Amino acid sequence: FGNTCYCNSVLQALYFCRPFRDKVLAYKVQPRKKESLLTCLSDLFNSIATQKKKVGVIPPKKFISRLRKENELFDNYMQQDAHEFLNYLLNTIADLLQEEKKQEKQNGKLQNGSIESEEGDKPDLTWVHEIFQGTLTNETRCLNCEAVR
Predict the structure, then answer these.
(1) Boundaries of each USP domain copy (predicted)?
(2) Contact indicator for 25, 45 with CB cutoff of 8 Å
């Protein structure tokens, strides 16, 4: 597949992040959606979870192929930065989930015939946000008196 260790390391870390893995596996059982990076990731995680052997190899061919189709940065056989890939993957999944939520709301409004008031243009938070979003805080501490600014 080329130099995909940046991808493999991120996929392994995400698979062993239980809340993330559980949500991705739960996504697999939803009605089939068009192929996306999330559906490919869900298929890959499902293959790993249902593997009968304790050790082995599961090539992420479909996932890598989809990644290369969706982002030209990864459409080569060169090594990439794992943190760039992690950011791209999490942002892409969050965007997909937000778009699905938006579509569901629009479909629900059309079916009910009533239009609810919009909550501004603020995007809905997804399970990706719930798991990984945080607050970065910087503080400066004096080495002499230890006062914090």
Answers:
(1) 1-149
(2) yes
Total-model pTM:
0.77
Residue whose tokens read 């190899």: 57
* Per-residue pLDDT at 9: 92
pLDDT for the residue 141: 87
Q: What is the DSSP string of 42-108?
A: HHHHHHHHT--SSS-----HHHHHHHHHH-GGGSSSS---HHHHHHHHHHHHHHHHHHHHHHHHHHH
What would the two tokens of residue 44 be? 């890959």
All structural domains of the chain with their residue ranges: 4-108+126-132
| Token pair recorded at residue 59 | 């090539």
Q: How many helices (H) and strands (E) does the chain have?
A: 6, 0
